[in-house]
Amino acid sequence: VHKAFGLPIDHLADVVVVSCGGYPKDLNLYQAVKSLLNAAQALRPGGTMVFLAQCPEGGGAPDFFDWIHSLDAGTLDRDLRAAFTIAGYIFYASVEKIDRCQVKMLSDIDPSIASRMHLQAFSSLDALLQTVDFSGKDVYVMPFGGFTVEYDPFDPFAPFRAARAQQQTGEEVFARAKKGLRDEALVVAAKVVALAVLSIAG
User: Which of 40, 106, 110, 165 would suit a FRET pair with 177, their CA atoms being 20 to 30 Å apart?
Assistant: First the structure.
């Protein structure tokens, strides 16, 4: 996955602008949240996501969007545990990510539908941009959110995840893991030195 669709990042952005990449990837919210979930991986907690998804079919299939009733009732976690479905889990994960940031959505979707998922929907780009502060902010732009997977290149567990996805041999996994751990140690050391220098300078 990392090799085909991965994009290494070294920090989380203040603002992420993400597009689903057009029809049919933004046919409805069920399809569109794939891009939202990927974009959330690159956004700092409390940051702003500008989410471009037309969603002409609204929330999408009932097995996904009917979980909105549990969300409205405040029983989503309990209800999903009692009757788990993949679509329900995707809905749950989407709401969790949305609640950790501010999502401004440019869309044809009914704003009253979007707001039930804690999304702020706009039909006008100008109106949306008036609510976003870009000044002095780190901004990532993801034109094909559903096909872009951000990851930390210094994550020591990344070699295991990538190797599992590629069905590598045990020897290859071990070799990649050792390299990943060595790189991680160097990065941690550099961070400690930088923090110490800043502390002394301050």
Answer: 40
